[in-house]
Design a protein that fits this description.
The structure holds two protein chains of two kinds.
Chain A: H1 7-31, H2 36-55, H3 57-61, H4 64-81, H5 88-101, H6 120-154, H7 160-174, H8 177-191, H9 209-247, H10 250-258, H11 262-299, H12 305-315, H13 318-346, H14 348-352
Helix pairs in contact in A: 1-5, 1-13, 2-4, 6-9, 6-11, 6-13, 7-9, 8-9, 8-11, 9-11, 10-11, 11-12, 11-13, 12-13
Chain B: H1 2-11, H2 13-34, H3 40-48, E1 76-79, E2 81-87, E3 92-102, E4 110-117, E5 122-129, E6 135-143, E7 147-152, H4 157-167, H5 173-176, E8 186-196, E9 202-209, H6 225-261, H7 263-277, H8 281-292, H9 296-305, H10 311-324, H11 327-334, H12 339-375, H13 386-395, H14 398-401, H15 404-432, H16 435-438
Antiparallel strand pairs in B: 1-9, 2-3, 3-8, 4-7, 4-9, 5-6, 5-8
Helix pairs in contact in B: 1-15, 2-6, 2-15, 6-7, 6-9, 6-10, 6-12, 6-15, 10-12, 12-13, 12-15, 13-15
Classes of the chains: A mainly alpha, B alpha+beta.
C-alpha cells in the first residue's frame, strides 16, 4: 500500500524550502557585505583569462599591447556574463543565490579534494559521508540509549537513580559534546591508551574490507561514545517526563484493568503514544547537534565537513567556508524533513489529516 | 513581584547553591586580580606579552601537586653577588657567587643563565659546584655589547660539551648538572668570574626552572594559567549575561508584539520563527567571524542578530494572550494608552521574571559558544577567555601529551559555572512552574 503524502507534510516541505532560500540568501548577503563574493568571482575570471592567453598559440606570441587589450575586453565580457556589472541588489545577489541553490559553489583557493579537484562542491561532497556517518550514528545511538534509560526511570520516579540522572542530563545537555571530547581524549586516549586520539583510519589502514572496517570502528569508538555520553541524558530526561505523564492517562488504566501484561502496556500504550512528542521536543537539540558536530569533528580530527571548516579557517579559504555554510543549510533542512516524515509515520493523526 | 520571585529563588536550596558557586568563582577571581590592582588593560597586555613570562617554567603543573606526595621542583632565581673584586689598570675583575638549595625528587625543566651587562668588553666564566663537591665548568663568554642575554644551557653546545666531559655522561645539561643517579640534593654554588675591560659591571643570574608553578600551572608560553582563568571568569559572566539578556529581551518583545497585535503580525512572527529555527546558526556565525574577524562585542551582536525570534518568543506570546484580556490592560487602554506604552509598561514587566528563568539556563551555552569559536581560531584575538585557554590547550596538544592541568583546570571552572547557572535556572523553573514542585 502506497502511503499517501499528507497535506501537512507538503505544507511543511514548502515552508522548509522557503527557509532554505532565506538561509542561503542571508549567506549571500552577509558574505558580500565586504564585497567578498565579488572579489572571489573577479579572481576566478582573471585566472580564467590568464589561462586562455597562455594556452592560445596566437595570443601567446602576440605583442603585449594586443594581449592587454584582449585581456581587458575578455574580462569585461566575462564580468558582464556573470552579472558583475549589475548592482548587488537585486540582480547580483539573486545570481549568487541561484548559484548556491544549484550547488555551483565555485573553486577553492588552497584546499583540494583527494581526487585533486579544486571545486568546492567536490571537496565538500568527499567529506560529507563521514559527517553523516558520525552524526546519524551518534543521534540514533543516543536516542536508543536515552529512550531505554528514560523508560526504566519512568517506572521508578523519585528514586535515587532518578535524582542522579535528572541533574546529569541537564548538565550534559548544556555542556557541548566537543568539551567532553577534549577531556575524554585526555583520559581514554592519553592515560588509558584504549583508543586513538583522533582521525578516521590508521596512517596505513589495512587493505581488506574487514580489517578496514575494524580500523574504522576502532577510530569511531571514542567520538561515538562521547556523542552518546553527552546526548543520551536529555533523551532520557524527556522520555521519562513524558512517560510519567502518559502513564497516568485513563487509557493506560483501562489497558491495565483489561489485564494486559505490563510489557505490552509500556510498549504499545505508553511508549507508542510518547514517541511523537519525544521526537518533536528533541528536534531542536538534534538540529543544534549538527552545528555542534563542527567542533566535535575538529576535536577528534574526524575528516568530515566540520573539520573542513577548521582547515579552511586556518588556510583562509573563503570559498570553502561560504560553500560549507550553504551545505550546512541543506543538511539542516534535510534533517528537519526527515524528522517531519518520522513524525508523520509515528503519529497516525497526521497521516490521515488530508 | 520580581523581587519576591528573586527572593524565593535564592532562598531555595538549589538557587542558593547555584548563587554560592557563582559568587565563589567571582570572589576567587577578584582576589587574584586584586594583586594587580584590577588593572584590566595591563593584565590583558601582560597576557599577550611573551616577554612578561620569561621567568616562569614552561608547561609546569600546579604547585599543589606537591601536596599529594610529589616533590617536584619549584623555580629558583639566584642573582650572583660579588664576593671579591680587584681593580687593575686595564681590568675590573670580580668573583660572583650564588647558592641554590635543591631538595626535590625531579630534575629542573630548564636552566637559564641571564647575563645583564653594562659592559661592552668583558670576559665571563661560569662554574657550578655541586653538593657532591664536583666542580663543573659551564661556559665562557666574551661580551662585546651591553644588554640582557638569556642563555639556555640546553641549547649551548659549549655547556653540553663541558658538562658531558666532566661527568662522563650523555644528556641535556640542565639534567646532568643535577644528576647523580637520581636528582642530587643539596646546595649548589654558582660561581662566575668576570673580567671587565671597560670596568663596567656585568650582572649574572641563574634561573633553575621547576616543574610546578602557581595554582593552575603554566601553558606553553609560560603563562600562569590561573591568571587567565581569573580574567576569564568575569569575561564569561559578562559575555554570557549580556548575550543571554539581549536575546531574551529581543525575543520577548517579538513575542509580546505577536501576542498583542495578533492576526497578520502574529502570523508573520510565526513564519519568522520557523525560518530562524532552521537557520544554520553556527555555520553563519563562523562565516561572519571568519570574513570580518570579530572581537567579543561584535560576536555578541551577531549572535543576537541570529536569534531574534526563538523559544522565548513562543512562551511570551502565549503569556501575552493571557495578560491581554486582563482588566488592568483594558483600563490602560480606556485611559488612552498607546500600544507601545502598554507593551513596555504593563506587559513587559509581567513577562520579565519568566524570561529570567530562560536567561540563566542560556548563559553557559553562550560561554561554550565563545569557546567553540576559539577552538576554530575565531575567538577574540586579545582577551583571555576560558574557552580560549581550553582551545589553546587543545591546540597545544595538552590532551595528547598529558598536560592535564592546562585542560582540566579551566574546564573545571567552566563546568562549575555551568552547574551554578543550571541550579539557578532550575530554581527559577520550580518557582515559576509550580507543577514541577510536585515531582
Amino acid at each position: 500500500m502506497a502511503l499517501p503524502i499528507p497535506r501537512a507534510l507538503l505544507k511543511r516541505v514548502a515552508q522548509l524550502v522557503v527557509g532554505l532560500i532565506v538561509a542561503l540568501y542571508l549567506t549571500v548577503v552577509v558574505a558580500n557585505l565586504g564585497g567578498f563574493l565579488d572579489e572571489l568571482l573577479r579572481a576566478q575570471i582573471e585566472q580564467q583569462v590568464a589561462f586562455e592567453v597562455a594556452s592560445s598559440p596566437t595570443l601567446s606570441q602576440a605583442s603585449d599591447e594586443v594581449k592587454r587589450a584582449y585581456i581587458e575586453r575578455r574580462i569585461e565580457q566575462l564580468e558582464k556574463a556573470l552579472g558583475l556589472d549589475k548592482p548587488f541588489f537585486p540582480d547580483r545577489s539573486l545570481i549568487y543565490l541561484w548559484k548556491l541553490l544549484t550547488l555551483d559553489l565555485g573553486r577553492s583557493f588552497f584546499i583540494t579534494a583527494a581526487s585533486g579537484s579544486t571545486r568546492v562542491y567536490d571537496i565538500i561532497m568527499e567529506r560529507l559521508p563521514n559527517t553523516v556517518l558520525l552524526i546519524s550514528l551518534g543521534t540514533v545511538l543516543s536516542a536508543l540509549v536515552g529512550i531505554m534509560v528514560g523508560t526504566y526511570l519512568s517506572k521508578k520516579p523519585l528514586t535515587r537513580q532518578d535524582r542522579v540522572v535528572v541533574p546529569f542530563s541537564i548538565t550534559t545537555f548544556v555542556i557541548p559534546t566537543w568539551f567532553f571530547g577534549i577531556i575524554f581524549i585526555l583520559f581514554f586516549s592519553y592515560y588509558l591508551g584504549l583508543v586513538p586520539s583522533g582521525g578516521m583510519y590508521s596512517p596505513n589502514p589495512p587493505e581488506d574490507p574487514l580489517g578496514r572496517t575494524a580500523d574504522l570502528l576502532y577510530h569511531l569508538a571514542l567520538p561515538l561514545a562521547t556523542w552518546v555520553f553527552s546526548n543520551f541524558g536529555i533523551w532520557a530526561y524527556t522520555t521519562r517526563n513524558l512517560l510519567i505523564q502518559i502513564a497516568h492517562e485513563d487509557f493506560v488504566l483501562a489497558a491495565r484493568a483489561k489485564g494486559l501484561p505490563e510489557s505490552v502496556i509500556s510498549r504499545r500504550y505508553i511508549l507508542r503514544v510518547a514517541m511523537p512528542p519525544i521526537v518533536t521536543s528533541l528536534s531542536l537539540s538534534i538540529i543544534a547537534s549538527i552545528g555542534g558536530a563542527i567542533i566535535t569533528e575538529t576535536v577528534f580530527n574526524w575528516p568530515g565537513t566540520g573539520q573542513l571548516y577548521y582547515l579552511a579557517i586556518q588556510l583562509g579559504d573563503a570559498p570553502v567556508i561560504i560553500g560549507l555554510t550553504a551545505i550546512y543549510a541543506y543538511m539542516l533542512i534535510m534533517t528537519v524533513l526527515i524528522l517531519e516524515v518520522l513524525y508523520a509515520v509515528l503519529d497516525p493523526r497526521i497521516r490521515v489529516s488530508r | 513581584m520580581l523581587r519576591e520571585i528573586l527572593r524565593e529563588v535564592f532562598t531555595s536550596r538549589s538557587g542558593f547553591a547555584g548563587l554560592a558557586i557563582l559568587v565563589a568563582l567571582g570572589i576567587l577571581s577578584a582576589v587574584f586580580l586584586a594583586q594587580y590592582g584590577f588593572d584590566v588593560g595591563s593584565i590583558v597586555d601582560a597576557w599577550n606579552d611573551d616577554a612578561y613570562w620569561l621567568d616562569n617554567p614552561r608547561l609546569a603543573a600546579p604547585e599543589w601537586v606537591n601536596l599529594f606526595g610529589a616533590n617536584l621542583p619549584r623555580t629558583t632565581v639566584v642573582h650572583l653577588e660579588a664576593v671579591r673584586s680587584a681593580e687593575a689598570e686595564e681590568v675590573l675583575a670580580a668573583k660572583l657567587e650564588g647558592y641554590i638549595d635543591y631538595y626535590y625528587d625531579d630534575y629542573p625543566s630548564e636552566v637559564q643563565i641571564i647575563v645583564d651587562s653594562q659592559s661592552s668588553n668583558s670576559f665571563v666564566e661560569l662554574q657550578v659546584v655541586r653538593p657532591d663537591g664536583k666542580r663543573l665548568r659551564l661556559l665562557s663568554l666574551s661580551i662585546t655589547r651591553p644588554g640582557v642575554d638569556r642563555i639556555n644551557v640546553d641549547s649551548s653546545e659549549e655547556v653540553a660539551a663541558n658538562v658531558e666531559r666532566a661527568l662522563g655522561a650523555q644528556g641535556a645539561p640542565s639534567r646532568l648538572i643535577f644528576d647523580a643517579g637520581g636528582p642530587l640534593k643539596g646546595t649548589y654554588q654558582f660561581v662566575a668570574v668576570v673580567n671587565s675591560f671597560d670596568k663596567r659591571p656585568v650582572n649574572i643570574s641563574v634561573v633553575v626552572y621547576g616543574k610546578v608553578h602557581g595554582l593552575a600551572g603554566t601553558d606553553e608560553k609560560r603563562r600562569d594559567i590561573f591568571m587567565g582563568i581569573s580574567m576569564g571568569i568575569p569575561i564569561a559572566y559578562m559575555f554570557g549575561l549580556v548575550t543571554a539578556f539581549a536575546i531574551v529581551i529581543v525575543q520577548s518583545l517579538f513575542g509580546i508584539v505577536a501576542g498583542w497585535f495578533g492576526g497578520r503580525v502574529d502570523a508573520a512572527v510565526d513564519r519568522l520563527a520557523d525560518i530562524f529555527l532552521i537557520l544554520p546558526f553556527l555555520p553563519i556565525l563562523i562565516m561572519v567571524s571568519f570574513l570580518y574577524r570579530l572581537d567579543l562585542l561584535s560576536i555578541i551582536g551577531v549572535i543576537v542578530a541570529l536569534s531574534l525570534v526563538g523559544s522565548t518568543t513562543k512562551v511570551v506570546r502565549s503569556m501575552t494572550l493571557q495578560i491581554k484580556s486582563e482588566a488592568y490592560i483594558e483600563a490602560a487602554r480606556a485611559l488612552g494608552a498607546s500600544s507601545a506604552r502598554i507593551i513596555l509598561v504593563h506587559i513587559f514587566p509581567r513577562v520579565l521574571p519568566y524570561s529570567f528563568a530562560l536567561v540563566t539556563t542560556l548563559i553557559p551555552s553562550y560561554v561554550y559558544l565563545e569557546a567553540a569559536l576559539a577552538i576554530l581560531g575565531l575567538g577574540d584575538p586579545f582577551l583571555p577567555t576560558l574557552g580560549k585557554i581550553i582551545s589553546e590547550a587543545f591546540g597545544g596538544g595538552a590532551a595528547f601529551s598529558g598536560y592535564w592541568w592546562w585542560v582540566l583546570i579551566p574546564s573545571a571552572f567552566l563546568v562549575a559555572m555551568t552547574v551554578g547557572f543550571s541550579l539557578i535556572g532550575y530554581a527559577f523553573d520550580k518557582v515559576l512552574n509550580p507543577r514541577l514542585r510536585e515531582q
